[in-house]
Amino acid sequence: MTTPVVLITGALTGIGRATATTFAAAGAHIVVSGRHEEAGLALAEELRKLGGEAEFIRADVRHDDDLKSLVDGTVERFGRLDIAVNNAGTEGEFSAITDLTPETYAATFDTNVLGTLLSMKHELLAMRAQGSGAIVNVSSVFGERGYPNGALYVASKHAVIGLTRSAALEAAAFGVRVNAVGPGPVQTEMLDRFIGRSDETKSSFVATVPLGRAGDPDEIAEAIAFLSSDHAGFMTGQTVFLDGGLTAA
């Protein structure tokens, strides 16, 4: 069986890092990407110790040339691209719609939406050439519901689901599947920035989750691994919400 080649953007922390670790432990060849070279090189070394081949390629998902170099570099290093996980994202600025500006809009959408679009553009070109592949985009529970003072983040994560559905329909013709995950609150640095670091604030927020807790990054990583695998071979264009029951309410 051919060892899968996996590319992960936004891989240096949180869900991206957990996903890289999950694939490395399974023996995959991995390219991790992010904007911080020192952290990226250290992560690649950690992944090699888990048994997989791993490389770091620096890229900023807001820039088309960076993403072309990232995908080209992955294919040059490993010969193909089987799985791409588009996890790079930002929570942006949370404030009332009446306080938003074109600049705050761009700061969120350039990473979350343009970054996902450009990532898929180059990933799909590589996968189309080989006639196979699987892409998993990372949306959010807020790709399904609203949140006061969070219009930019909410809208950007709705957009990721729209991009996923459209890309899935285009890619089906050449044997590539495109799905997404929609995490709820997951214990990461982004969650701490989002709700603050106060134990009281965090407890109140987590209490809104029907399962009564925040998720673990490894739980999201396992779902991403499933969606990327042959076990999900008949799934495309779908978003799997891992939110402790929030979207069921």
Q: How would you characterize the overall build of this protein?
A:
This protein is of the alpha/beta class and 249 residues long. It has one domain (5-185, 217-241): Rossmann fold. Helix content is 47%, strand content 15%. It is built from eight helices and seven strands, in the order E-H-E-H-E-H-E-H-E-H-E-H-H-H-E. The protein has a seven-stranded parallel beta sheet with strand order 3-2-1-4-5-6-7, with helices on both faces. Helix 3 packs parallel to helix 4. The longest helix has 29 residues, at 102-130. The N and C termini lie far apart (42 Å). The relative contact order is 0.14.
Distance between the termini: 42 Å
Largest sheet, strands/sense/barrel: 7 strands, parallel
What proportion of the residues form beta strands (DSSP E)?
15-25%
Mean pLDDT: 94
Strand and helix order = EHEHEHEHEHEHHHE
- Note poorly predicted spans: none
Query: Within the CATH hierarchy, at the fold level, what is the topology?
Result: Rossmann fold
- Strand tally is 7
Strand order across the biggest sheet? 3-2-1-4-5-6-7
- Number of separate domains: 1
User: How many helical stretches?
Assistant: 8
Share of helical residues: 40-55%
- Would you tell me the structural class of the helices and strands? alpha/beta
